Amino acid sequence: MFKELQTNDRLWKQFTKQEEYDNPNLDEYGRFPYSSTVHKNVLNPEVSKFLIENGLKVEYPESKTFAVCLTHDIDLVYFPELKKVHDIVQKSRILGFNEPLGGIPEKIYGRINRLWNFSKIMNLENKYDAKSSFYFLALEKNELDFRYELDELEDLLREIINNGWEVGLHGGPNAFNDLQVIKKEKKKIENLIGKKIIGYRNHYMKFEIPTTWELLTKAGFKYDTTYGYHDHVGFRNGICHPFKPWNLKTGKSIEIMELPLIIMDSTLLNYMKLDIKSSWEIVKQLIDTVKSYQGTITILWHNNNFIGEMLGFYEKILKYCNKKDAWLTSGNEIYRWWKKNNFFDVNTGL
Ligand SMILES: [Zn+2]
After folding, report:
1. CA 136 to ligand 1 center in whole angstroms
2. CA–centroid distance, residue 173 to ligand 1 (Å)
3. From CA 326, how far away is CA 273, in angstroms rounded?
4. How much is the pLDDT for 18?
5. What are the angstrom distances between the C-alpha of 146 and each of 125, 131, 171, 173?
6. In the chain, domain spans
């Protein structure tokens, strides 16, 4: 079946994204945008359609019909004007007053600092039998886009993991094409929590085909979930399933799993300039499409969007997917499930 995909020139080019290898049409952050692609039809996963029609069979735990991979990039844990308050809270925590938040109950701190909403997010997801992944930046003070000191968040990270949610790396602006940087940032998180991490998403969705996948594999990551367009929702390479990427330069597949990013919160409102109502229509359409192919839909909701109508929007997604019989879970859970069941190796060789 993998061979069949290779014989379909159009779909093979789309799946491998040949156009991204030597295409100079990048944006100012070095990203390949939707506006540069010839594969404009990103709302229909044509590669997944082909694979399903040619025998790919996918199952999910407890006979769920599709999966939703819920993710949060943690760009900020406090707004700059609250730095002093944040420092005081962290300091008292370090001094050992009432773990984990230094004698100030988390709820009160969360009211002052609305970005300190990790329990709120986990409680909300728990209501719909869902789990998710949190990707943290691991930057040093002097680096571009440094926004918080990761070392101060040890208790938080441990709490997230102990609750059964995932902590992964949100690779910094210079990580995506630099192995040393990726390794350094990965180590920073792992040293802090005393555990290996397996999941990755790059800041600004910076990504270079096939370099980023190759470097992440070398650094020991098991999956990446950066691959999507920042300026358009949908299926960047026509696939709505986790997949093993193919390197056109070496003629070999890469030993990492890609959980393609299908929907980012800011894509809908900021880049596509949709209002909440039309955003919901397109999100609903994507969910229904992924369900029809027994796929996995990865959604990125930043922790600064858990307030007002964006909070309501996220809950609407959880409610809808839960009702539609989805498995709502984190990247590492989906990775383990696919690895264990080997769907592509068995069915397609991908
Ligand atoms: Zn980011």
Report:
1. 9
2. 8
3. 28
4. 94
5. 28, 27, 11, 10
6. 2-77+115-347, 84-114
For 279, list phi and psi in degrees, rounded to 5. Answer: -60, -45
Tokens read off for 261: 């990013």
Do the Cβ atoms of 85 and 312 come closer than 8 Å?
A: no
Nearest to 228 by CA among 269, 186, 258, 198: 258
DSSP per-residue letters across 224-282: E---S-SSS-S-TTS--S-B--EETTTTEE-SSEE--EEEEHHIIIIIS---HHHHHHH
pLDDT band at 108 (very low <50, low <70, confident <90, very high): confident
Q: Cα(290) to centroid of ligand 1, in Å? A: 25
- The one-letter amino acid code at 103 reads G
Give residue 167 CA to ligand 1 midpoint distance, Å: 15
H helical segments located in the chain: 2-7, 9-16, 46-53, 83-94, 106-112, 118-127, 154-162, 179-193, 211-218, 265-266, 276-292, 308-323, 331-341, 343-347
- CATH superfamily for 2-77+115-347 is Glycoside hydrolase/deacetylase (3.20.20.370)
Distance CA 45, CA 36 (A): 18
Lowest mean pLDDT among 111-115, 220-224, 325-329: 111-115
